[in-house]
Amino acid sequence: MKKILFSSNIPTPYVTEFIDAINNSLEGVAKVTIVFESKNKSFRSHWKSVNNGIILNSKNKNKHFKKILNELNPDVLVLTLYNTWTTINGVNWAKKMNKPFIFGPHEILSPHRTSYIKRYLKFKLYQWVTKNAKGVATMGNESIRDVAKFYKGPIVHIPYSFDLSRLLAMNPPPLEEKPLIFLYSGRLYDFRNPLLSIRVFAKARKANPTKKIKFIISGTGPLEVKCKELIRDLDIEQDVEWMNNFKDWYDIHTLYSHAHVLLALQYFGTWGIIIQEAMAAGLGVISTNTIQSADNMIIDNYNGFLTTLNEDQIVEKMQYYIDNPHMVMEHGKRSKEIVKIIDVNEIGNKFANLIKSQL
Questions:
Q1: Is the dihedral of CA 48, 79, 3, 67 positive or negative?
Q2: Percentage of the chain with pLDDT > 70?
Q3: How far is it between the farthest Cα atoms of the chain?
Q4: What DSSP letter does each residue of 108-129 carry, written as one string?
Q5: Cα gap 299→296, rounded to integer Å
Q6: What stretch of H or E contains 155?
Q7: How far apart are CA 19 and CA 33, in angstroms?
Q8: What is the DSSP letter of 58?
Q9: What order of strands is seen across the sheet that includes strand 213-218?
Q10: What distances in angstroms separate CA 181 from CA 173, 216, 256, 261, 262, one per listed residue?
Q11: I need a surface site. Which of 44, 101, 120, 200 has the fewest CB within 10 A?
């Protein structure tokens, strides 16, 4: 039985499911052992992630990782973080021991514009880390184009993935019984732009005084107070509901059974699993194409809408769903079929084939 060491950032439910899918695909051929850089972040403690791997000793990660490498002596090494000492040690170990390594899956390197010097240094480090990699896995077309500038080996699209069956079994509430419900889901950070979502909902509310529409916000974070103040100032408190009481990460998915249209209006973004969650649950989606998952899986005016950050343009897309509520279900039906291509079994098998090519 061949041995694979997979080094990742933190334990999350979707990483756990991804590794399980890879192991299922490699059954009888190889076994993946996963090593995490750190414990789950405190603001994600409500996810109640199950740790199915080894968490590096926070006081001496490098020594701990080298010990694991030498004891396990993997046949293939998988490294997902380009900018940590753990990865640098892994690359050096693979070179010394003449072992193949694969880089990724990772998200887009520069989801937003930083200084030229920072971008240059980031890409130079990435170029060094991946120089001798036998393959790179990354998330989204834009990231593939970026990586191809520096890496000339095989590149595969491997997004975050998990079992979609629970979400695929869901549907939005019947429109005959409920108002049309818009949804914001995610941490209340500036780059996620929750204040914009609130403002455009208020505009849609004002433009449709006699129609039944509602807004659900699910998330906490630094902008929570500002969000609540804006909701009060725009006089839409009666139309907004907060939903944050969930048992774990899987329970969070029940959120999508309460809404019809996801608003994902970020300034910039990496992959963004909220898009595939909403698609699998059959929601309409209005998203900026700065979110990689939307840019890859939302076909404008076919299974949702892609938009700029212009408020009037966003409200226009919202108005389309308000005037044509049946199209929520039509777009959702199409999304349910599209999103199946990134179910965890499909993606796990695809990544397992990349590993098999090195055994």
A1: negative
A2: 96
A3: 71
A4: -S-SS---HHHHHHHHHHHHHH
A5: 8
A6: strand 155-157
A7: 9
A8: T
A9: 240-242, 213-218, 180-185, 261-264, 284-288, 305-307
A10: 9, 7, 10, 6, 9
A11: 120
